[in-house]
């Protein structure tokens, strides 16, 4: 956000302009995040879709909703055979493993392996340290507000994605 952070206590601040700044900041975050992801993928002999799959698996796991191969196929917009091939590569490379669902042994979830977690931690550890340093001066109330903003934007993006025809959502007329 840097220098473009607005003082939200100023009654002269235009909400539309503030929302536009947040949208611009999120696009910048997405763009640089993608660049970092490409470097991680190259350094670890992963294809771009391999990294995308790892991000989906890590996100689902962090949210407490582990992902299946079928769900990953839908999330990534690729065919079942393509996601199966991708998963096999990721298992062979030591990044992912299949874990049977505790409630339904027929269902299998994907999870990072210890090796995969160590590789990610080794690469992204310095980013975590930089992020903590960048946020150190912000009060907890600001961090809670930023979290609410990110949760809201993520929910909006997920809803929008679900409605897109290419994602299997409804077709608008």
From TrEMBL:
Keywords: DNA-binding, Transcription, Transcription regulation
Signal peptide annotation: none
Gene3D superfamilies reported in the protein's UniProt record: Winged helix-like DNA-binding domain superfamily/Winged helix DNA-binding domain
GO molecular function list: DNA binding; DNA-binding transcription factor activity
Coiled coil: none
SUPFAM superfamilies: Winged helix' DNA-binding domain (SSF46785)
GO biological process, one term: response to stress
Domain HTH marR-type: 19-155
Organism superkingdom: Bacteria
Any matching Pfam family: MarR_2
Keyword Phosphoprotein: no
This protein's name: MarR family transcriptional regulator
Organism of derivation: Nocardia bhagyanarayanae
């Amino acid at each position: 956000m840097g220098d473009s952070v607005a003082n939200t206590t100023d009654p002269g601040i235009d909400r539309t302009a503030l929302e536009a700044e947040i949208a611009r900041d999120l696009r910048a975050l997405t763009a640089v995040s993608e660049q970092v992801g490409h470097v991680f993928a190259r350094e670890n002999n992963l294809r771009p879709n391999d990294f995308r799959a790892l991000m989906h698996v890590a996100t689902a796991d962090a949210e407490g909703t582990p992902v299946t191969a079928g769900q990953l196929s839908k999330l990534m917009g690729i065919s079942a055979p393509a996601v199966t091939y991708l998963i096999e590569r990721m298992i062979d490379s030591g990044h992912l493993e299949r874990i049977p669902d505790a409630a339904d042994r027929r269902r299998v979830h994907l999870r990072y392996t210890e090796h995969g977690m160590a590789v990610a931690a080794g690469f992204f550890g310095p980013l975590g340290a930089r992020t903590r340093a960048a946020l150190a001066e912000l009060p907890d109330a600001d961090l809670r507000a930023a979290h609410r903003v990110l949760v809201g934007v993520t929910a909006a993006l997920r809803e929008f994605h679900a409605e897109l025809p290419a994602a299997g959502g409804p077709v608008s007329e």
